[in-house]
Amino acid sequence: PEYHQIILIHGILSNTHRQAARVALSFDFPFYGHNIRQIIVATGGFIFMGEITHRMLTATQYVAPLMANFDPSFSKNSTVRYMDNGTLFVVQWDKVRLKDRENEGPFTFQAALHSNGSIIFNYREVPVPVEKINSTEHPVKVGLSDAFMAILPASQLSDAKQRTIYEYHRVEIDTTKIVSGSAFEFTPLPTCLQHTSCELCLTSNLTTDCGWCNTLQRCSDGIDRHRQEWLDYNCPEESKGKCEDYNPMLPEATMSSFNNLSPEPTTALPSSPNHRGITENTAIIAGVVAALVLLVTLTLLAVYYINTHPTVAPPFYLMQRRTNNYWPSMKFRNQSCHSTYAEVELGVHEKEGFIEAEHCC
Predict the structure, then answer these.
(1) For the chain, which terminus, N or C, has the lower number of CB atoms within 10 Å?
(2) What parts of the sequence cross the membrane (predicted)?
């Protein structure tokens, strides 16, 4: 049957450089086992898939058909457009040119996100070999990446908590294979997160190294976006158990004693004189009052410290990448390693930035 799909041009992204804008999906897109309903499209040829936005969008958590220093504002013919039909979301960077290399020709390529989790990169025009694109001013990447965020306690050098981004997986495409008319398809593998019961988590042949955390009612191998919560709730230890450990059965003797309970009054145990109860209550009340006084004192001290130290550093991000199955030691990487992006503010002008471009059959 014939149907129409509306392709929308994003007016803001099509006329700016190094900008990114949020786009809501009409379906849940499974990305590394996590259902994503909102993405961020960037002018630089990639989609940011992270839940927490920051200025280092090019670092990780991306779907990048061709991440590079594209400048859609150079030409009126350069646009960033997209389409969502309920089961498929497509972003197309159409006739975009490299910053300060505009005379080398336009690039046209797209990323397609399917509701089953598969991702397809299509390349219509690639006028310059990707390996010859300069990465000094902007990273050049092709592939997928995901990461989790861990919050570390304040250090001796800073009173602020450190938010550290750990890249736990990356897929890279051989850039020499990217030519005009080429395409690549990524098919997602099963993940521990898809199992919703302990039995499936521990016995499924589709996945390996999965553990069940009964406290969170979650199946995981411990390396996904929920890693911080997995550690906070002591899931690494809890997941070592078996499914039957989470459904303890009371001994028969205990069950029979419950069934034989009668409403008859029981003999009261000898009690202490009444004045002893009064003394214990007084002690409890005094302890509660002392705790409240201590809490108020600490709060006042904290407020005083913040007011007298206005230059305390805010939480900042570190970036680490997993190599050879082990997490490297902490090293701060300057943000200059990754191009910074400004996110387009949502507001009354958002709808004015979307134009119906064409109908497809």
Answers:
(1) N
(2) 283-306
CA distance 340 to 291: 47
> Can you give the residue ranges of every domain in the chain?
5-188+316-360, 193-241
CA distance linking residue 21 with residue 42, whole number of Å: 7
- In the chain, the DSSP E strands lie at 5-10, 19-31, 34-42, 46-48, 62-67, 79-84, 88-96, 107-114, 119-125, 141-152, 162-172, 183-186, 211-213, 218-220, 317-321, 342-343, 354-360
pLDDT tens for each residue of 1-12:
444 578 899 999
| Rounded Cα gap, residues 80 and 51, in angstroms | 22
Of the candidates 4, 156, 14, which has an alpha carbon nearest to the alpha carbon of residue 73?
14
Q: 168 in the Ramachandran plot: left (φ > 0), alpha (ψ -120 to 50) or beta?
A: alpha
Token pair, residue 37, equals 């309903």
CA Rg value for the chain: 28
What pLDDT sits at residue 162?
A: 74
pLDDT of residue 155: 59
Torsions phi, psi for 277 (to 5 deg) = -65, -40
